[in-house]
Amino acid sequence: MDANRFLSTFHSLTNIGWTEEGVMRLALNTYDVKVRQELVRILSTINANVNLDDAGNIIGSLKGKSDETIAIGSHMDSVPYGGKYDGFYGVMAGLEVLRSVREKGKLPNHTLSLIDFTNEEGARFQPSLLGSGLTTGVFNKDYVYSRKDNDNITFERALMDSGFMGDEKNRLVYNKPKYYVELHIEQGPILEEEGYQIGIPMGIVGLSVYEFTFIGQASQAGPTPMNRRKDALVGASKFITSVRDYARSKDNLRATVGIVNVKPNVYNAIPREVRLTLDIRSTEKSEIDKAASELINMAKKIADEEKLEIRYNHLWTANPVGFSDEVINAIQKACEELNMRYKFMYSWAGHDAQYMTRISRVGMIFIPSHLGISHAKEEFSSDEDMLNGLRVLEKVIELLDR
Amino acid sequence: MDANRFLSTFHSLTNIGWTEEGVMRLALNTYDVKVRQELVRILSTINANVNLDDAGNIIGSLKGKSDETIAIGSHMDSVPYGGKYDGFYGVMAGLEVLRSVREKGKLPNHTLSLIDFTNEEGARFQPSLLGSGLTTGVFNKDYVYSRKDNDNITFERALMDSGFMGDEKNRLVYNKPKYYVELHIEQGPILEEEGYQIGIPMGIVGLSVYEFTFIGQASQAGPTPMNRRKDALVGASKFITSVRDYARSKDNLRATVGIVNVKPNVYNAIPREVRLTLDIRSTEKSEIDKAASELINMAKKIADEEKLEIRYNHLWTANPVGFSDEVINAIQKACEELNMRYKFMYSWAGHDAQYMTRISRVGMIFIPSHLGISHAKEEFSSDEDMLNGLRVLEKVIELLDR
């Protein structure tokens, strides 16, 4: 591999969509479309065969001796105010692997594919993993195409406008890769704090996302005495604090309220409605279900105390998944051959790898995230750590290709 | 006065801007412009002299025997998802007074003016009372014109586009009305609960508005362990609950967090920044100042506990004002002559009357608000209550005109 080529491609392309507040490369927006065009352009310089499926996933392949495929993938979309590394690093590293295989000129045993999945983040279109969900058969087309962003633009519309609408026959579920490997930043503080260079996830924790709406009564802030109020924001605030305190009291649980929308959101009106999301994660499905049920009861109790109505609904669940022992072993072997300090762990974030377990033997490779920060402009992994991950990825592909 | 003419004008015009979620007649938006055009059209049918000042305030006058003026006023803009009565009632009642004076054909001693003040609510352009503030000399033109709405449109731009840009020489501060009377809904539950038909405010309580920003660290919701988080939303939530509990423990204080904006506002990212507004009111300035200082300390303590940064700044203050004894006495006398059950009280909401005390002898008349609800689609006052208020207003003008 060519370290300088990788670093210069990575740093120049991930600046597309960078702003003072972070990366704004939301799925299929102007910035995302621009980096996609760049990716396709570079793939064409190495004569890769580029296919698009009907989720807009980009699949660039170098034909090997056999049609059996080893796929490398991740995503280039970001959350709003996101970081430069999340997802993007994995696609750029895969691109370098393909470039250097082409450069060596030696035909691999397997066909090698690089995949950029559409709308991994779920920031523009909810839920997340829409591209990998459609291509692996988890979601159906009607569901995926009807997802809407905040401006009421459907996924289908955005995909058509982007120029990346492809063909249903190119879905991975009809062309299953034998292996799928995803290289990613940890997005947590463990590897850095404990001094490891590489993390080897055993799988991905489960996730359930709920939406809660607290409904009170708007009124003018001045003339309504404090003891007559039905303030939806006070109820929501008590709930948000309770969620954090509850999750902090459990070992194997994380719970986050990430979205809060207040109506009417005027300084001198008592809030009448607050909608919020609750994200619950654990390695054990049973613990997620227990937490959801206990937090719903807490919300009801708070609504009662504050004379509010409460509504909630379950948005989606991703069950915990385990990765392939064969791929995990290959990653471990690669780390040992390269003298990398590695640690087995879990991924607490969702990844396209999750749905790829339905159709392929899957593994992931993590590199340290400085201070554990992700989904923020401060997200950072050093060039050295990125090159370590790239070396491990290249070695894993070599081992799986034997 | 003509009760049916008043009611039919009121109900048909306040429907301009009505939606299923409430009135959306924000200052100088399409709906506000449309009702303004209707108001000017009706004023022209009674040959009123219509002037605009450089805040877009509409001043329609019927010349009397003298140039000394009795003004009646309020506003036609609404908060988002607002009610049909707030402000609009006062303008429509004043219009009926002018119509019936013109109809009687008897020249009053004083010139009678009707004023529609621009951007009373402060919902589109903050702060509130921009129109009355400029016309009475509280605010200067640069300040008022540079206020921006959420789409970054300045007040000046919106005013020019509306067609209601008028002349600085028409400001009320250069043409001071001797008296100013404003008829308004109570926006609180007291009159209805205690069985009064009319409220006579002695003055308007004071108000201070602050903005607080809690700043933490965004990160991916999954991989960041609960005890390493700097969650700006948890800090803000603890503060919001504390504000309510604090105000509830005081007799003569109201405090409201009305606006909350979260960044990045994504379900799977720990919130890094929450901006919120705090509205503090009391009849006593000293109590507002004390509450502000104690709540700022609470915010600092919470930020400390949650490892957050905190910023706050004072947005604006309106000191408590007292109304003119002469006008209050006239309102009391009118109520007695009309056999209305009336109550002396305070206005806990700001009104254009507040700034009019700088240049005129001012009084207000309140009618009951059903359930005390205002700034919401459920805002309601009966036709009977509205007619009672209109009768008192007409009588007060007659008494002041003697």
From TrEMBL, chains A, B:
One of its GO terms (molecular function) is hydrolase activity, acting on carbon-nitrogen (but not peptide) bonds, in linear amidines. It comes from the Archaea. The keyword Hydrolase applies. Keywords: Hydrolase. Residues 206-305 form the Peptidase M20 dimerisation domain. The keyword Hydrolase applies. Gene3D superfamilies: 3.30.70.360, Zn peptidases. It holds the Pfam family Peptidase_M20. NCBIfam families: hydantase, PRK09290.1-5. This is Zn-dependent hydrolase. The lineage of its organism: Archaea, Thermoproteota, Thermoprotei, Sulfolobales, Sulfolobaceae.
